């Protein structure tokens, strides 16, 4: 009798002990048809009658969460290592504007079946500005991000990342997959097409693998992302798994069609034929259709005249400034004898805008720049020779000089023979020294040759 009583007590105590560490925990959802007894929906997340898990709708700056309500034991003891786990899910993103979206979906493993302090926008409903990056978060996530946030060092607006306690991913990559030939194939997260993701963690090697592929494609052999991280300090003994999504200023719908999960094993395969179908996205929202059809042409009609007017005003101002820049006053002596001085405009362009590098020097009469007109130099030389003619009668008057300079009269041809007696006269004491300059004159008139 005593032995029988001990046996009953022993088996009674044994039944109260935690389940064996070899126990396998798994679940599979081939669609999410209401009522969902084991799925907690928060924020704007809903389950449609057709079985779609709709995390967000066309509401700006909102979050949507969907968590498996039962805690999952990832460690055999509080201080133990994290067991291997695996999950796969199929998702789709539909944006109000086909080329923009916000902000994506994240698969999340967290200490609670809710994220009450998380915010929308770039924080994807997972973190907030207050707790992003804190080790006390104990959050692991795989983000499917459709917005590039420079504060998180995002690579682009179409990437997949592994997040640990922060949205600054420990590893990220442009969305896509490796085919059988080893070639990378791009995938666009906001293409409105169904895609499948696999997340695997090896408890022995601590390797995290994230793989994705188009709907109905086999799982690629090569993972999109691989990172070795021991999650023992991140995970508590019991954690909750689920999804998070958020909208920003661009309205987007984020869908999950199917989901399976398993600890200490591979996630069960999804029955693709049983998954719910997506809504018809071909037409898109009528609000956007009207905008492109009526709004854009109206804006264009209003903008074109404004641009033309501004362009004309800009051109008129440039012309007026140029005229004011080169405007000159006629002096009395120019009126009497005819305009003879060189225009300021010609001087400006001849000296290339009076650049400092061409400045030769400055004196009492202003600055001298390194530039000249070859024809005018030749005319000055010839005029100088004519004014120094040995025969005073052959020398031009001042009025003739002005006419020559202004171009009203043509200089007569100069023969070197006429200036053969011209030289340079030096008086030293009582001695007159006269040096013949005929060769110099010949050289000048012949261009130095």
UniProtKB/TrEMBL annotation:
<keyword id="KW-0812">Transmembrane</keyword>
<dbReference type="GO" id="GO:0005524">
    <property type="term" value="F:ATP binding"/>
</dbReference>
<dbReference type="Pfam" id="PF00139">
    <property type="entry name" value="Lectin_legB"/>
</dbReference>
<feature type="signal peptide">
    <location>
        <begin position="1"/>
        <end position="22"/>
    </location>
</feature>
<dbReference type="InterPro" id="IPR050258">
    <property type="entry name" value="Leguminous_Lectin"/>
</dbReference>
<dbReference type="InterPro" id="IPR001220">
    <property type="entry name" value="Legume_lectin_dom"/>
</dbReference>
<keyword id="KW-0067">ATP-binding</keyword>
<comment type="similarity">
    <text>In the C-terminal section; belongs to the protein kinase superfamily. Ser/Thr protein kinase family.</text>
</comment>
<keyword id="KW-1133">Transmembrane helix</keyword>
<keyword id="KW-0547">Nucleotide-binding</keyword>
<keyword id="KW-0808">Transferase</keyword>
<feature type="domain" description="Legume lectin">
    <location>
        <begin position="26"/>
        <end position="276"/>
    </location>
</feature>
<dbReference type="InterPro" id="IPR013320">
    <property type="entry name" value="ConA-like_dom_sf"/>
</dbReference>
<keyword id="KW-0472">Membrane</keyword>
<keyword id="KW-0723">Serine/threonine-protein kinase</keyword>
<keyword id="KW-0732">Signal</keyword>
<dbReference type="GO" id="GO:0030246">
    <property type="term" value="F:carbohydrate binding"/>
</dbReference>
<feature type="transmembrane region" description="Helical">
    <location>
        <begin position="295"/>
        <end position="316"/>
    </location>
</feature>
<comment type="similarity">
    <text>Belongs to the leguminous lectin family.</text>
</comment>
<keyword id="KW-0325">Glycoprotein</keyword>
<keyword id="KW-0430">Lectin</keyword>
<keyword id="KW-0675">Receptor</keyword>
<dbReference type="GO" id="GO:0004674">
    <property type="term" value="F:protein serine/threonine kinase activity"/>
</dbReference>
<keyword id="KW-0418">Kinase</keyword>
<dbReference type="GO" id="GO:0016020">
    <property type="term" value="C:membrane"/>
</dbReference>
<protein>
    <recommendedName>
        <fullName>non-specific serine/threonine protein kinase</fullName>
        <ecNumber>2.7.11.1</ecNumber>
    </recommendedName>
</protein>
């Amino acid at each position: 009798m005593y032995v029988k009583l001990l046996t009953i007590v022993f088996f009674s105590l044994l039944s109260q002990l935690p389940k064996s560490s070899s126990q396998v925990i798994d679940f599979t959802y081939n669609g999410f048809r209401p009522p969902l007894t084991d799925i907690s929906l928060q924020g704007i997340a809903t389950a449609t009658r057709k079985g779609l898990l709709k995390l967000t709708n066309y509401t700006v700056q909102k979050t949507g969460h969907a968590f498996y309500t039962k805690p999952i034991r990832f460690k055999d003891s509080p201080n133990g290592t994290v067991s291997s786990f695996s999950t796969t899910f199929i998702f789709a993103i539909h944006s109000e504007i086909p080329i923009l979206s916000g902000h994506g979906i994240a698969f999340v493993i967290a200490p609670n079946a809710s994220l009450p302090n998380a915010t929308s926008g770039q924080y994807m409903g997972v973190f907030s500005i207050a707790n992003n990056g804190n080790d006390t978060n104990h959050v692991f996530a795989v983000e499917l991000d459709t917005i590039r946030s420079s504060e998180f060092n995002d690579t682009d607006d179409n990437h997949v990342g592994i997040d640990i306690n922060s949205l600054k991913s420990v590893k990220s990559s442009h969305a896509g997959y490796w085919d059988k030939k080893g070639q990378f194939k791009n995938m666009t997260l906001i293409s409105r097409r169904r895609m499948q993701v696999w997340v695997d963690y090896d408890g022995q090697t601590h390797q995290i693998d994230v793989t994705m592929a188009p709907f109905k494609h086999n799982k690629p052999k090569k993972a999109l992302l691989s990172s070795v991280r021991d999650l023992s300090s991140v995970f508590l003994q019991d954690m909750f798994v689920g999804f998070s999504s958020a909208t920003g200023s661009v309205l987007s719908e984020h869908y999950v069609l199917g989901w399976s999960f398993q600890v200490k094993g591979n996630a069960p395969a999804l029955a693709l034929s049983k998954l719910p179908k997506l809504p018809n996205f071909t037409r898109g929202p009528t609000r956007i259709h009207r905008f492109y059809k009526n709004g854009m042409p109206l804006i264009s009609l209003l903008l074109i005249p404004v641009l033309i007017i501004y362009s004309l005003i800009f051109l008129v101002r440039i012309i007026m400034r140029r005229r004011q820049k080169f405007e000159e006053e006629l002096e009395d002596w120019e009126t009497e004898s005819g305009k003879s001085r060189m225009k300021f405009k010609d001087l400006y362009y001849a000296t290339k805008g009076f650049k400092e590098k061409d400045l030769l020097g400055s004196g009492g009469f202003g600055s001298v720049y390194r530039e000249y007109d070859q024809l005018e130099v030749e005319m000055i030389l010839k005029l100088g020779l004519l004014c120094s003619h040995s025969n005073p009668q052959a020398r031009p008057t001042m009025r003739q000089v002005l006419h020559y300079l202004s171009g009203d009269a043509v200089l007569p041809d100069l023969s070197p023979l006429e200036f053969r007696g011209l030289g340079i006269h030096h008086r030293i004491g009582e001695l007159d020294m006269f040096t013949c300059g005929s060769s110099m004159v010949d050289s000048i008139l012949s261009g130095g040759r």
